[in-house]
Automatic annotation (TrEMBL):
Domain Peptidase M24: 171-376
The protein, known as: Xaa-Pro peptidase family protein
Biological classification of the source: Bacteria, Pseudomonadati, Pseudomonadota, Alphaproteobacteria, Hyphomicrobiales
Domain of life: Bacteria
Coiled coil: none
Amino acid sequence: MAISPRQTLAAGPPFDAAKLDRLMEEAGIDVLLATSKHNTQYLLGGYKFIFFAAMDAIGHSRYLPIVVYEKGSPDHSAYIGNRMEGGEHQNNPFWTPAVHTATWGTLDAAALAVEHLRKIGKAGARVGIEPSFLPADARDLFASRLDGARFVDATHTLERLRSIKTPQELEKLKVASELITDSMLATIAAAREGSTKGEIIERLRREETNRGLHFEYCLLTLGASHNRAASPQAWAKGEVLSIDSGGNYQGYIGDLCRMGVLGEPDAELEDLLAEVDSIQKAAFARIKAGATGSEMIASAEEILKSSPSAAFTDFFCHGMGLISHEAPFLLTNHPVAYEGVDADRPLEVGMIISVETTMLHPRRGFIKLEDTVAVTTDGYEMFGNRGRGWNPGGV
């Protein structure tokens, strides 16, 4: 995975420090210990250590990067990383004033974090942590050595910090979406009668990798089946293909779904995809800064209710960026388990929304469109806005 340029110490934090200070104050957090790979990447200006990009485990423990940030005092920040990251720091210095590239596991990383908190006088402070991304042994060490500290869940704070994308982030998300679209259309065109799901998925992996993406997944259906897992199932004449893929460009997710058909689509298929598209467009029509997510959802659901295929069609939307589901959170437990806390809040310029409509047709199969849009002042910009109709296979 490519390493993005990082700001120097002189330039200060590569994120909106004033916004983070405000969010920490609202959450009752004095000092932050970020331990997830996506949030440490964000706080370090796009950096992710390539050695642990795919797997965290090493020896008897695991990689645990930690960014320490004190509210109102960026000069007290620290980065705690693996010993091999000393070379990374030498070639492209981290912005944090303190850098400890000295760890091999969770306990030595946690011990260095405790040492740094004591040094800056915050050992008994209100400490923000990421519970879902803090190993139990590291948390136990914090609890035993930070007498008087109160631990506060900082998940929401960090989600709010990342919710508005910078122009640089928007460009990366756009590139990711464009490259995934190109890869999916090339894969559909190359697939032939008899091509298996496994072969098609492997072709997509190569197409994305050759374009500079890190392949993450492909969910694929053929024919009448709704099963999106890899298998030896082969594509047959007249059947549809649904290809839904996530690819990563410099840490940012692209996630779209497009449709293919082996042969010419008949009138029924044209009508079914048009139904899906009409629901998507109803949602797009309500996207702009100042509008709420609930307005977008209501607009799409109104068209969905009048659809002839409403009984087996579903509408969904969610925020995305460094991870596939992040702020704004628009729907509750649908299907991913989180609260739709942002549904009635105004959308803001720079938010990214994935809009998807899925039809599980009992005879024709899995028919879906998923699109990525950026919220703008007077509307939206769609990323990867190609191939939204029936794309022919075997060409």
